[in-house]
Amino acid sequence: MVYNIILHVKVEDDLKRLDRAIARRIIQKLQWIEKQEDPLYYSKRLTDPAIGDVRFRIGDYRAVAIVREKTKTIVIIKIGHRNDIYT
After folding, report:
1. Which domains does the chain have, with CATH numbers?
2. In sequence order, what are the beta bridge partners of 64?
3. Residue 69 has what pLDDT?
4. Tens digit of pLDDT for each residue in 26-70?
5. Which end of the chain lies in a sparser environment, N or C, as judged by fewer CB atoms within 10 Å?
6. 62 - beta bridge partners?
7. 39 near 74, Cβ under 8 Å?
8. Residue 36: how many CA atoms within 13 Å on its side-chain side?
9. Which of 10, 2, 1 is nearest to 52 (CA)?
10. CA distances to 17, 21, 81 from 75, in Å
């Protein structure tokens, strides 16, 4: 299953608020996940659909995403620290 990971426009603002090293690490991890055979293996389903479909764990940070099965895309809609991401 080949999925493309796309960053929503608002995610760029989330990344700018983070330290450069952390933002770089998050981007590298998302690129690595995208290259895997089944990227959703590295995700966890969220129980509240208002937040998003899945989340990816990247150290103390989370990337919340919406999965579009028809187009095989994963749209990252929010990135933040694990204490702040779900509020």
Report:
1. 4-81 (3.30.2310.20)
2. 55, 78
3. 92
4. 999 999 999 999 999 999 999 988 899 999 999 999 999 999 999
5. C
6. 57, 80
7. yes
8. 12
9. 10
10. 20, 22, 18
